[in-house]
Amino acid sequence: MWNARGMKPQAPETRPREEWERLASAAAPEGRAFIGGELLEPRGGRTFEDVSPIDGRVLAHVARCGPEDVDLAVRAAREAFEGGAWRTMDPRDRKRTLLRFAERVRRDLEQLALLETLDVGKPIIDSVRVDVPSAAECIAYYAELADKLYDEIAPTAPGEQALIRREPLGVVAAIVPWNYPLIISTWKLAPALLAGNSVVLKPAEQSPLSAIRLAQLGFEAGLPPGVLNVVPGSGEEAGQALARHADIDMVGFTGSTEVGKLMLRYAGESNLKRVALECGGKSPQVVMPDADLEAAAEGIAWGIYYNSGETCHAGSRVLAHEAIRHDLVEAIARVARTITLGHPLDPGTRMGALIDERHTQRVLGYIESGIAEGARVALGGRRVLQESGGCFLEATILDEVPVGARVAREEIFGPVLTVSGFRDEAEAIRLANDSPYGLAAGVWTTNMNTAHRLTSALRAGTVWVNTYDRSSLATPFGGFKQSGSGRDRSPHALEKYSDLKTIWSAYQ
Ligand code: NAD
């Protein structure tokens, strides 16, 4: 699915930039909340400006939901759950409904791709080829499971029968970030809906547009009213009200580790709702001296610069054996120079804008701090295309980074790769694992023994060997340590959105 290397430039096959720009200027994105099957203005009529990071244009005035709106959405979701129209639906009908939902996402591919690109600044080619198709595929993947899951019967003595049934939790809150708004929303809502829950989705304030449209499409496809609701708004207001709500049974959160910790606090201070967390990362790419350097450079460059480095599992921290570090950095820079930075509506663009001005300043601040701590800028480092009014930053490599430097330890979430050296395998493992995060890791070696030793030793939810960022819905995704708990994707995701009930009966 969202495989950066596999998606690297082929002939652009979408519309030319002028056509996208024409569609963009005609677009009038919906900004209202979606609650109980209806588009609603927020109580009190408060809105916020949703600004495009491409040129600073206001795309829509979006509902700024507060506690009252959240409460309304949770009540609609609870009513739908208790009413049972979705929860007790014949699994084959639930499958058909979700498949229709996926089909509508595919039908509106261009419209959704445009919303995603305008809202978050990612290249239109990626929205068209990766984000929207992946969202549709995710809904269809879980739809297909609806009539293929069986419950269990436990071994018991004769005269007794113990059924172990998987049941929905009730009302699930999905709180998601801005980097892959559609993909991450569907990673949550598709398994949650398949399990029979109702969902209240809170998109990030930077990227509310595709979520609102998604809920409309689900409703059109036949989801009963209240089964899928969207409450746009800020984290502190809508997000917190949702995570603290006493009638939410579970929060599926993706975002920063800092806010992930708040989720656990809110749950503890309210109703002990379950919490599943997909949080930040600082994923190491370990390059051994026997690695195929050209392949490693290709994988590493796309592993950091895809989506401008705004990817939780970006391979942002290269640990290279000193014998090949210099050659590797040069090879990565060569690949990076082929990744076209430009206007996101140009189908030739492979690196677009960062999410907003504040984040751009934060990333630039990290580059400065890396230099101050002794790093050498081997590529990029500058803001560009400023006349556009957008947030564009060059692909950057910081080499010779001291391992204790902030840039080597903290998540930058931008197109900035740090490179540090090591002298032997033991040091590589120690440095790779010396992080509060454990989302992903990469290993580059031509020796299978080395590969096996490293994949066992690295503490990460996914370890790639001689590739990076390859994945599909069939594989679980999530982190060790402070990168989170629980897994998105694959049938394992259902464990988060359901609970086991034992039904023990005696018979004669
Ligand atoms: P964020 O933590 O700031 O926000 C995520 C969501 O939480 C947003 O919807 C936001 O409105 C909400 N939120 C913020 N403060 C809140 C509060 N006090 N109470 C309730 N909700 C609140 O993260 P972001 O800046 O949107 O996204 C970037 C982060 O997400 C990075 O750290 C990245 O690594 C992480 N991420 C992780 C994964 C993963 O699968 N592990 C995937 C994508 C992004």
CATH architecture of the largest domain: 3-Layer(aba) Sandwich
Alpha plus pi helix count = 15
Total beta strand runs: 24
Share in β-strands: 15-25%
Shape: globular
Poorly predicted segments: 1-12
Give me the CATH superfamily of the largest domain: Aldehyde Dehydrogenase, Chain A, domain 1
Tally of structural domains: 2
Secondary-structure-derived class: alpha/beta
Percent helix: 25-40%
Largest sheet: 7 strands, mixed
Ligands in the model, by name, code or SMILES, are: nicotinamide-adenine-dinucleotide
Question: N-to-C terminal Cα separation, in Å?
Answer: 53 Å
Oligomer: single chain
* Main β-sheet, spatial strand arrangement: 14-17-18-13-12-20-21
Mean of residue pLDDT values: 96
Write up what this structure looks like.
55% of the residues are buried. This protein is globular. The longest helix is centred in the first third of the chain and has 22 residues. The strands form seven sheets. A seven-stranded mixed sheet has the order 14-17-18-13-12-20-21, sandwiched between helices. The protein contains 15 helices and 24 strands. It is 38% helix and 20% strand. The N terminus is likely disordered. Strand 10, helix 9 and strand 11 form a beta-alpha-beta unit. With 508 residues, the chain is an alpha/beta fold. It has two domains: 270 residues, Aldehyde Dehydrogenase, Chain A, domain 1, CATH 3.40.605.10; 190 residues, Aldehyde Dehydrogenase, Chain A, domain 2 (3-Layer(aba) Sandwich), CATH 3.40.309. Helix 2 packs parallel to helix 8 and helix 3 crosses helix 7. Bound molecules: nicotinamide-adenine-dinucleotide (NAD). The site of nicotinamide-adenine-dinucleotide has 30 residues, from helix 8 and helix 9.
